[in-house]
Amino acid sequence: MSDTDVFIISIVQHANPSEAIKEAIADAGINSARVQDVIFGADESLAINADKILSSSNLTCSAATVSSSLRATFFAAQSILSFDADVLIVLGIEDNISTAMLFASPDAVGRWNLLPRARLAARSLNGIESALRAAEIELKDVTIVKDGKYGALLIKELLDELEQKSARWGMITVNELALLIERL
Predict the structure, then answer these.
(1) To the nearest whole number, what is the mean pLDDT of the chain?
(2) Are 29 and 105 within one domain?
């Protein structure tokens, strides 16, 4: 593990956003008090009551909302990489389903004995080639590529498929955004 790692510890889908968050925390095996931030990713057309969702999830941390769950994932990674947070949740609310992803820093993984499912290997606002360069791999190394509109849904599908196929590398693309995920 290095300071440049961001780990996906758990990822849960549920119709109820608060339940998705609670299940992601339970699946990770971490105390909810350790969650330092929740970043909501949702289309601007959705009315999100972040305070109500946090309260129903038994969380007292801060929250922010951005325009998509993939952007929220990028912000979460940046928070961990800049040492602003060790444990946070991205909640994608898309297509009437909520996807809660619990992310952790290497320090949090070691300190609380968390078991990562995958790591965010690279992300790019400038497309696939930039992400591949950052991860120092080639497109031929990527087993599964998912393209679409809803980042959190795609990340869940990709991670499940990587695990089913025992594949190592996967990529999510939404417009020019690209995210490389390495299954651990």
Answers:
(1) 91
(2) yes
